[in-house]
Amino acid sequence: MGFRLPQTFDRVTTLRFHLSFLLALSPVVILSAVNHGWPILVTVALSMASAWACDELLRRVRRSPEAPDWGALLWGLLLALMLPAQAPFYFPVIGSAFAILVVKGVFGGGGTPWINPVLAGWAFLQAGWPSAFPAMEPLTGDHRTAFDLQATDWLNANVFSWVSVQLPGGYLDLFVGLGHPGTALIVESGTLALLAATVYLLAKGYFPWEVPTFFFLTFCIPLVFAGGNLLHQVFSGALLLNLFFLASDPSSRPLSRGGLILFASGAGLFSFLVRTWGVSSDGVGYAVLLMNLFVPWIDRRFRRKSLNDFRLA
């Protein structure tokens, strides 16, 4: 593949870009550790350390003159968030090694792979150990926390009663990341922090609004017409992480505005199909990976007419 370096047209340095993402996602890790215990911190640390070590090894083998930009640390963090909370400690090591040495090493071209390495590492682990990844279960009120019981009752009595609507139990737990079983993904326990990080990064202009907007619309609109549970689908699994962070990765998304819209729309539609009729535990990552394969064609089809058409940040 050709030389695709996103920092060529970025408004911030690559180091600052990656550091901002790392800092913004750190509260997600903290909330997950509060809910599931210290092993979460070990899993995240192993994933980030393995990704950094493999990237350093790859740089030395290639004799790359470029200074480290913390991109591997960010990939390791994102991969860890995609793992189950009770994942064995060798999962992040194997996944990070595959993402860096295989995906970046083989498809990296000029240093940035056109296939998202985080999702490729996640798909490799899910293909090798499918039973370790939890299936998406319907929302029930069997494991509601005291917060959900009290807050739901208060909202139904004082807010939703004015419009003759009742909020079912369990949704507030889902929104704030409480009440998840030990088999849930790490990112599911930090939903509220993930949304806060997204608002901050969007305000800073660190990823284009086209990707999450069209991804969200093409996922939610057919889901509503199909009679799906919208709130449960949005706040369960790794949909939000894929929506805002993995689909928006600068190195594996199209460059032009029209290309971004097509890419995000395809990812959202395929996510709906996989979530509705697929057999995978959470196949949103596969939808983004599938659209990654079309990025070279999309970039050729939607050629940039001017520098104003570049949407890199």
Question: How would you describe this protein?
Answer:
- The protein has 14 helices and no strands.
- It is mostly helical.
- The chain has one domain (6-143, 179-309): Ammonium transporter fold (Orthogonal Bundle), CATH 1.10.3430.
- Helix 5 packs across helix 13.
- The longest helix is centred in the first third of the chain and has 24 residues, at 39-62.
What keywords describe this structure?
globular; mainly alpha; disordered N terminus; disordered C terminus; 313 residues; Ammonium transporter fold
The assigned CATH architecture is Orthogonal Bundle
SS field, number of helical segments = 14
**Principal-axes shape call:** globular
The SSE string, one letter per element, is: HHHHHHHHHHHHHH
- End-to-end separation in angstroms reads 22 Å
CATH topology: Ammonium transporter fold
**Would you identify the regions where 5 or more consecutive residues have pLDDT less than 50?**
1-10, 306-313
Q: What share of residues is helical?
A: 55-70%
Strand content: under 5%
What's the total count of β strands?
Answer: 0
Structural class, please?
mainly alpha
CATH class category label? Mainly Alpha
Largest sheet: none
Radius of gyration: 20 Å
Structural domain count: 1
Q: Calculate the mean pLDDT score and round it.
A: 82
Tell me briefly what this model is.
By secondary structure, this protein is mainly alpha-helical. Helices cover 60% and strands 0% of the residues.
